[in-house]
Every structure is written in C-alpha cells, then in structure tokens.
Amino acid sequence: MMKPAKDAMDLGVFVSDIQASLRFYQETLGMEKEGESPMPIGMMHRLKFGNSVFKLIDPKEAPPKGPSGMTAQLGFRYVTFQVKNLSEVCAVLKEKGVKFSIPETELMPGVRIAMVKDPDGNTVEFVQRNG
Questions:
Q1: How far apart are CA 10 and CA 81, in angstroms?
Q2: R_g over Cα of the chain
Q3: pTM
Q4: Among positive and negative, which fits the CA dihedral 22, 25, 29, 33?
Q5: Does residue 41 contact residue 60 with C-beta atoms inside 8 Å?
Q6: Is the Cβ–Cβ distance between 126 and 113 less than 8 Å?
Q7: 9-60: which CATH architecture?
Q8: Would you tell me how many other CB atoms lie within 10 Å of the CB of residue 82?
Q9: What is the DSSP string of 42-104?
Q10: In this predicted model, what pLDDT tens digit does every residue of 51-108 receive, in sequence order?
Q11: Positive or negative CA dihedral for 56, 58, 59, 65?
Q12: What are the residue boundaries of the structural domains of the chain, listed by start?
C-alpha cells in the first residue's frame, strides 16, 4: 500500500537536555547535523544517518518521562543503527565511557549487536550483519 519516497525512515525523539543529546548523537556517535527548524512545540534538530533523519526535539515544555527499558511499557522502545564497523563503534564508545546494556555480542551467525542508552535512557542498538 505505501510507496516509499526514500530508502529510509525518519524518527523523532523528544529529549530533556538538547546539549547532552547533541553531544551523544553528534560527537560520540558521529552523526552529521543537517539543520534545525522551529516548531510550535519547540526546536527540531535534524541529524543524518545514511538516508535517515534522526530528529531530536527540544520541547518548549518537557513532557513527563516514561519508564526506561525495552520491556517497561508498550510503544516504540529502541532505535537500531545498522553499521559496517560494530567493533570500531564499540571501542570508541568504551573509550568515551559509555556504558553498555549489551556489550558486543554475536546474536546469531553473521549478526552481531551491542546496545547502549542515550542521555535520556533511551535504548540505542547497533547491528552489523555480515554476508
């Protein structure tokens, strides 16, 4: 039914501390800032990952924080970044003091993952598929 206009999905994330989130996603993970746009609800900061846009929303009024953890409630619970260099990503994250929820692990033959939390406690997964 849906016909994609681009080969990617975009995601919007409301954050409690835009500077901490920009440091994590830009400086720690290396995402490139595409721009920012004022919105009625706050400021949107657009970061690129491949063809996807990761939108960090700095709200004018912060909504209450929900429980963190993948199984704490229903709804969107984590974001996955497909990467070609998982070991390198994990080494840099460790060097920068980022704590892992799941260290680099072989999930199944040819699929390795690692998970961390961003400054707001959101789960961020990295996946490398070989082959």
A1: 12
A2: 15
A3: 0.91
A4: negative
A5: yes
A6: yes
A7: Roll (3.10)
A8: 13
A9: EEEEEEEETTEEEEEEEESSPPPP---STTSSSS--EEEEE-S-HHHHHHHHHHTTPPEEEEE
A10: 999 999 999 998 888 888 888 888 888 999 999 999 999 999 999 999 999 999 999 9
A11: positive
A12: 9-60, 77-131
Helices (H) and strands (E) in the chain, counts: 2, 8
Which tokens go with 117? Answer: 């939390």
Class of domain 77-131: alpha beta
Using DSSP's 3-state secondary structure scheme, residue 27 falls into helix
- Cβ neighbors of 13 (< 8 A, separation 6 or more) are 21, 54, 55, 56, 57, 79, 120, 122
* Residue 93, amino acid: L
